[in-house]
Write a structure and sequence with these properties.
single chain; Rossmann fold; Dihydrodipicolinate Reductase, domain 2; 2 domains; 9-stranded mixed β-sheet; 6-stranded parallel β-sheet; 15 strands
Length: about 350
């Protein structure tokens, strides 16, 4: 993403939130007070719900329909936190309304949807960005600098995992296949996005195995990803385990370990929102006797970092940065599709 410094005279980017889910409430809270981007409006299918959300979050305007929010001339960007199955429909409608779109992960239900979304954004001259909060953390930037700078030599393998327990499974959209539920789309997309960041391309072939919930979604999934030059990656995700989030990147000359958290803090406890330090450590060398060194970076909300980054690329009209991010999103969509197919078929799938 561009690092152009915001001029003092430039107004903050005006964000409208499409929907009133819990994650939208967290986004509004963390972006509040940001000099680069302000949440100025919210839209819901219910005016009462929109009014209550706006009042609780200190948002100036509320709309009783998604369409009304898209028609708001004082909104520059739509933040889209709707269920996975609705991302494509409303990202396309937002683009048609001339709004930039910051879309929650996973971007789409499949590669075809993702391609159509980016085509709509391009046709209407707006930017579409998939929002993985951890991606915008200073820690992720430091990790990529180590990888690309050769600090661990040539990357040979990546292992990435993310899992948690559903606290309220009854009626949870994560267990609804029609809404894009399942461990792979909800948690595995995070692990895959980190693998794609490090590997720089989609795999050639994948092999996945899943455990299925009664509703038909995958409750957990393990997979191996195969690359043309002999590199390998392993992905695991689950919705029936203790919370865990970890990645190990192994090169010919060293190792990186990270938790790649969405939101970070310097505090080990007592943060108002429960944010914690996110470990990033580096071993420069191949021997087990070589100690790991901690890599210290800035901390904060990934939502806020994402809003700031998107504001910078929009002001700079940095379409090249958006195109690079779009290619990663398309690779991820194709890989998620292949992983799901492999788990269903019980055999390897070539991309």
């Amino acid at each position: 993403m561009s690092t152009r410094v915001k001029a003092a005279a430039e107004p903050a980017l005006r964000i409208g939130i499409l929907g009133c889910a819990n994650i939208a409430r967290q986004f509004a809270r963390d972006v509040s007070g940001c000099p680069d981007a302000n949440v100025v409006a919210v839209g819901s299918r219910s005016k009462e719900t929109a009014d209550a959300f706006a009042g609780a979050c200190g948002i100036a305007r509320s709309h009783g329909s998604y369409e009304a929010l898209l028609a708001d001339a004082d909104v520059d960007v739509i933040y889209l936190p709707l269920p996975n199955s609705l991302h494509a429909e409303w990202a396309i409608k937002a683009a048609e309304a001339g709004k930039h779109v910051l879309c929650e992960k996973p971007l789409a239900m499949g590669l075809g949807q993702a391609q159509t979304m980016f085509e709509a954004a391009s046709q209407h001259g707006v930017m579409l960005l998939e929002a993985f909060p951890y991606y915008f953390q200073p820690q992720t930037g430091a990790m990529l600098e180590l990888v690309r700078g050769g600090d661990i030599g040539r990357v040979r393998s990546v292992q990435a995992s993310f899992g948690f327990t559903l606290s309220k499974p009854v009626g949870n959209i994560r267990l609804n296949p029609a809404l894009g539920g399942g461990a792979l789309l909800d948690a595995g997309c995070y692990a895959l996005s980190l693998i794609r960041l490090v590997m720089g391309e989609a795999p050639q072939k994948v092999m996945a195995d899943a455990v299925w919930a009664d509703s038909g979604v995958d409750i957990s999934l393990l997979a191996t990803l195969f690359y043309a030059d002999g590199r390998r990656a392993q992905l695991s995700c689950a919705m029936d385990t203790a919370n865990h989030r970890r990645a190990t990147i192994v090169g010919t000359e060293g190792t990186i370990e990270t938790e790649y958290l969405n939101h970070t803090s310097e505090q080990t406890g007592g943060h108002a929102y429960g944010y914690l330090p996110s470990q990033l450590r580096l071993r420069r060398g191949i021997a087990s006797t070589t100690p790991f060194e901690d890599v210290i970076t800035g901390t904060g909300s990934g939502f806020r970092f994402a809003a700031e980054a998107f504001a910078r690329v929009i002001r700079a009209q940095d379409f090249a940065a958006i195109e690079r991010a779009a290619q990663a999103s398309l690779d991820n969509a194709a890989t998620l599709e292949a992983l799901a197919k492999s788990a269903r078929l019980g055999q390897a799938v070539v991309l």
